[in-house]
Amino acid sequence: MASFTPAYIVRIFNPLVEFFKAQQQSGYLLLIATALALAIANSPLGDYFLDFWKIPLTVGVGPFIGSFSLEVLINDGLMTIFFLVVGLEIKREMIEGALSTRETALLPVVGALGGMVAPACIFIFFNDHKDSAAGWGIPTATDIAFSLTVISLLGKRVPISLKVFLTALAVVDDLGAIVVIAFFYSHSLHVVFLMYAAGITLLLMFMNYRGVRNIYAYIFVGIFLWLSLHHAGVHATISGVVLAMTVPFRFHNYEENYEKGLHKFLEFVKLLETPKSTGHLERAQRDRIIEEAQRVSTTMESPLNNMLYLFSWFSSFIIMPLFALSNAGVKIDFNVFSHFNYSIGAGIFLGLILGKPLGITLFTWLTSVLKITRFEKGVSWLQIFCVNILAGIGFTMSIFVTNIAFTNPDYIQTAKISIIVASLLSGLLGYGILTLLNKSKPVSEP
Description:
Largest sheet: 2 strands, antiparallel
Radius of gyration: 24 Å
Helix content: over 70%
CATH superfamily of the largest domain: Na+/H+ antiporter like domain
CATH topology of the largest domain: Na+/H+ antiporter like fold
Order of helices and strands: HHEEHHHHHHHHHHHHHHHH
Distance between the termini: 11 Å
CATH class of the largest domain: Mainly Alpha
Oligomer: single chain
Shape: globular
Mean pLDDT: 79
Low-confidence stretches: 1-13, 441-446
Number of strands: 2
Strand content: under 5%
Number of helices: 18
Number of domains: 2
């Protein structure tokens, strides 16, 4: 990664730092929700708790109507908002943030690619030519919230450049998971509904082209996109990313309109601040001026940032804990281990705890040797590897892919247990080694 001046770093990485803070805070809620789900699932109320998420609900209108369980509505419906937020964040970072230049974007992209290839290969090694091979995508995912929560607990013991790297890596990793879901876990495509989805996507693109800035218009159309993709056989969460890519970041003639709007806004402020003018203004006039100033200020806002502001807290603090509650409830007893599929367990466990850090480190090291990418000076390869261990916390996203990849209850149970154990160990190992590393003598720079 190239060297930047402090001001440039702040300007480029500030949005990503804000995203980092939101995710690390939601990680605590995720931890509580996970512990609660496991506790209730293994209590006398366990059967009632697990059956609760199977309650059927009817959603939709006209030809788009369908019946879904509460669990499916969370996994396919509410998780679409999570992917919408991730898509919006990726788009913003690609336009003016940490992924906007080749130097800043290539490092996490290369790392994320290595962090997907290596775990997939490990899983396939254990499950090749078996019906469980479909689960190769499970250990390729990284849980943003949990991994960033752990690294935040380390404070100044981890360089800021590595925190930024892990954040960008987790974001790109989620994009990779979306691609995997779209291309490898969508089956039995329904052509008519696929055409509906294509038409709705074209409508969203036309809205962007015509400069539509009302985010609720995009949300309304996006609902029909979700319904179309779900009925088409494509995993409906993809609609969140498609919608995010069509929401405008800036409006047409942004700089010129921004200058006009700012000038007009300042005129209103001066009018309100002038004692002579204020004294002669009626209250109704002052209220009208304030409303007009607010309207002008609103017209200068980015639709993409407005949508992020609207949904990011909902995604981080409601959807993700709710997902953990509905999916982390695993009954752990000796009967579970009698049906435990050890090839699936080994593929997921080793894929997350070993494949993730090795793949990320190897790919970034190779591109560094080839002078394609570069970390900040003062960061050792040992530090990089230890931070990459935290990428093995696959929890939410790995469970999400599990629910898509498998239909066999024993496979799902095996996968969830393996994910929880591997994610817990990855977090403890990453935290413990980085803490010890900080107390020891620094290692040579990469």
